[in-house]
Amino acid sequence: MDRPIFRTEALSKVYDTGGAKVHALAGVDLKLFTGELAVLLGPSGSGKSTLLNILGGLDRASSGKVWFRDIDLSALRERGLTRYRRDHVGFVFQFYNLVPSLSARENVQLVTDVARDPMDPAEALGLVGLSHRLDHFPAEMSGGEQQRVAIARAIAKRPEVLLCDEPTGALDSKTGVQVLEALKDINERFGTTTIVITHNAAIRRMAHRIVRFQDGRIVSAETNETRLAPHDIDW
Amino acid sequence: MQALDIKLLRDFRRLWAQALAIALVLGCGVAIFLTSFEMYNALEDTRAAYYERNRFADVFSETRRAPAPLEAEIAAIPGVASVETRVVGSVILDIPGRTQTAVGRVISLPNGGLPQLNIPLLRAGRLPAPEATDEVAVNEPFARANGFVPGDSFHANLNGQKRQLTITGTMLSPEFIYTIGPGQMMPDNAAFGILWMPERAAAAAFDMTGAFNSVALSLTRDAQTAEVIDRLDDLLDPYGGFGAYGQETQLSNSFIDAEIMQLRTLAMVLPPVFFGISAFLVNMVLARIIALERSEIGLLKAVGYSDAEVCQHYLMLAGLVAIAGIVLGFGAGSWLAHALARLYADFFDFPYLIFRVSYDAYAISAAIALAAAGLGAGRSALAAARLSPAIAMQPPAPPRYSRGLFDRALGALRLSQPAMMVFRSILRWPVRAGLTMLGLALAVAVMVAATFTDDALDEILDVAFSQSNRQDTMLLFAEDRPVSVLEEVRRLPGVLVVEGHLYLAAELRHGPRSKQVAIEARPPESDLSRVIDGTGRVVAPPPGTILLADRLAAQLNAQPGDVIEVEFLTNRRETFQLPVAGLVTQYFGLGAYMDFDTVNTLFRQAPRVSTASLLIDEGHEDALHARLKEMPGLAGTIMLTESRRAFEDTIAENVVIMTTIYATIAILITVGVAYNGARVQLSERARELASLRILGFSRGEVSAILMGETLVLALAAQPLGWVLGSAIAWSMTEGFTSDLYAIPLVLKPATFAQASLVVLVACVVAVLVVRRRLDNLDLVAVMKTRE
């Protein structure tokens, strides 16, 4: 866990929204390590999602540098970023972002179709406990099930990093726990670096490390000595 | 199958109603393109092959009576490849079981059998024996219409002698692909036939032994047609030549030319309208789908799909719509082409129809349809590809409304809030609103352009029959006769009124322009056959002047008051300078009119007539026809009442077919535009409308907002549709005008009203179908949907 998988230097992001300039990130220096489960905490607009998007190759920094291992992501062009997302990164979103016209299996297949060394979609769904829901459509599943399909979709390509933006934000505590269990299981079983953004401070207790954000800056980073299992977390 | 392809197919299935509405419009374009292209090729190829195989002549001329040895001199004209001289004449036929007279055109066959030019194609039986005097071969449609087979016989009044003629065979000729008898408005094969008769018998019948009165030439490849025509005229002038003319003026050929021209116009004008509308519809629907699938696009990119793959995904969706349209268009086009081929078989007498399936036409129409869909999809698909994944994952910013000039004007009107919503939305997306309006206007225009022909044909009939030619029957004399013949005609059974007219072949010249026509010389008191001027008044040609049909005057570039040169091709071939006294409204042929006494004075001759117009008592019709069949010196009869009835029947049938086809097209366009427009709006405004419902608006009020925009645009589209329709109708009258006929531009309020009614009803129905979805809106679910 010593080798950094992500490294950022003075990372800044400025959004130009017509008149006013918004500093979403204002000089972030951060290292994230292989196999780590890190939780990014902070209020709305503190820059966590912006950082996650830049780490995931969905967005570009306005200034500063970001490395994935030895790859300078800030130097990659659109094609390179697409390649990077395709090969290395798995995403889990707050609103699942499943394609409603595709079944669970087909939603996972969407990723395995373009990945280099993917799992079988059924296997990925099995890992999140959805072997019995392979051919159901998103509309036929509960929110927790949908989010687990999204996780299956994210891990099916055997990514090195899993980026989760408010994965339990739209879920009640019971289904939220199921989702967190799935994330923890993947992290431990495959050593996938997992970065979770959340509003829910309680979730920090399952992380290796907690990074707090405020106004586009990191205000603290602490290591969790005793991690709790998701079902032991008190919401 | 790849998951993205599965999504594509499922999206397509989900959108089936919208896709179908677009595919039907696109299919119309493909079908019309295909049909006109295929029929154009079929007519061109068939005609070319038929002309080549059966050696259709390049130049024709009729003459009064030229000696046989002149043939050698004609053959010596530079550029002439071969010469065919023959005897032609017109005879009255008495067909068993037919009360009315029929008219036959006799054409001599050389002694050796078939001629070298305009070679008839034997279809059944055999040629008449060279020595036979009572054998003929007849054109196949005439035999079929009268139920004749080889071996049957009928009577003909040959130069005053009634003879029984036996049919030895049936034939078809490249000279008579469109077989129209004298005075007929459209082919009537029972009443007009071609009779091929051995030369000796024909010459004897028409007093042409050792002479000919018709000549056809084929030219060498490098020949100058105009020069050959001049030389031929010079040779035939002393023998009463009526003026030589080229292939393009030959009657049957010019009808086919007119049809080919119409097909070309059709192929050029209509399909682009459909392809344009389809492109717009694809654009509108795809833009909305992409807006709805914003987060899915973000997801696809997040998981590693490239810009090109995303772009391709949406282009393929448009491609599927195009493929559906192409399949529909291919089906409808093939069916239409065969239906049209059957229709052509009724009107044109081809021995065969070369109907090659033109893979080019299929490929081109498919390529155009795909291009139209691609063009429509292109912008949206590219926008989808360019969408940055991070931004795509966020909900879109609300559409930007601002208070512009129009908005302040709307505010001043103190409209209700729902009305404001409708108008603001139109102003917010002016291009989309404009194109929707244009699409609906084109639907109105198609209807106007289709239904105006009905009124135009009524006008043609009214001018031709009710106003101009009010006689029941016309008798055509083989030779001009002294006016005393009219007394003879008056004594025939059932004849109430008789009028005589004289026809004179002439060449009219004005400046560099010239035209060969038949001038009608008419007594001022003529009342059965009248001449109508542009204002609808009955006019008589003032003595010493000439009246011209308006299209003839246009061709000669002559105005009333201009003096034109008139060279008569009959009698002494004298040339006179005559002032144009006025113009005549006429939709058939190119008429020119002079005063009867003026002509007799100019020619220093006793009054003569070429035709007699009769008003008859219907009760004595049978007796009259029985006498006409025996009457010597009669070359033909024209049954105007019959002609009118046949014309009306055919027109009525065609009008029903055409109106149905065009109304269907207009409805397809309207539904395509209105349904998709309303669906897109429902999708855009679902949250807004659901919010209004939650705030207490009734279903009716909410649907008024949904339907309002489309209906406001539909109403606004009507005047534009009328203008566009009038423009299309005008260009159709211009495009269809030929020497043979013209179509007047008659636009009645009822035409516009009918077009608007069809389009507005179709529009309301299409929008109501979408409205039903609004009734089923799950208010809570809609409010929860993240967009």
UniProtKB/TrEMBL annotation, chain A:
Keywords (A to Z) from UniProt? ATP-binding, Cell inner membrane, Cell membrane, Membrane, Nucleotide-binding, Transport
ABC transporter domain ranges (all copies): 6-235
Write one Gene Ontology MF term.
Answer: ATP binding
InterPro entries, sorted = AAA+_ATPase (IPR003593), ABC_transporter-like_ATP-bd (IPR003439), ABC_transporter-like_CS (IPR017871), MacB-like_ATP-bd (IPR017911), P-loop_NTPase (IPR027417)
GO cellular component entries? membrane protein complex
User: Pfam families given for it?
Assistant: ABC_tran
Q: What family does this belong to? A: Belongs to the ABC transporter superfamily. Macrolide exporter (TC 3.A.1.122) family.
Task: Give the matching PANTHER family.
Answer: ABC TRANSPORTER ATP-BINDING PROTEIN MG467-RELATED (PTHR42798:SF2), LIPOPROTEIN-RELEASING SYSTEM ATP-BINDING PROTEIN LOLD (PTHR42798)
- Protein name in UniProt: Putative ABC transport system ATP-binding protein
**In which organism is this protein found?**
Rhodovulum steppense
Taxonomic lineage from the root? Bacteria, Pseudomonadati, Pseudomonadota, Alphaproteobacteria, Rhodobacterales
UniProtKB/TrEMBL annotation, chain B:
PANTHER family given in the database record? LIPOPROTEIN-RELEASING SYSTEM TRANSMEMBRANE PROTEIN LOLE
Protein's membrane topology: Multi-pass membrane protein
Q: Which residues cross the membrane?
A: 15-37, 269-292, 313-337, 357-377, 429-452, 655-675, 711-732, 752-770
The record's Gene Ontology biological-process terms are:
lipoprotein localization to outer membrane
Q: What is this protein called?
A: Putative ABC transport system permease protein
Presence of keyword Transmembrane = yes
Protein family according to the UniProt entry: Belongs to the ABC-4 integral membrane protein family. LolC/E subfamily.
Give the matching InterPro entries.
ABC3_permease_C, Lipoprotein-release_system
User: What are the protein's UniProt keywords?
Assistant: Cell membrane, Membrane, Transmembrane, Transmembrane helix
A Pfam family found in this protein is FtsX
User: Lineage from the top down?
Assistant: Bacteria, Pseudomonadati, Pseudomonadota, Alphaproteobacteria, Rhodobacterales
Q: Where in the cell is it found?
A: Cell membrane
> GO cellular-component terms in the record?
plasma membrane protein complex
Q: Where is the ABC3 transporter permease C-terminal domain?
A: 273-389, 661-774
The protein's superkingdom reads: Bacteria
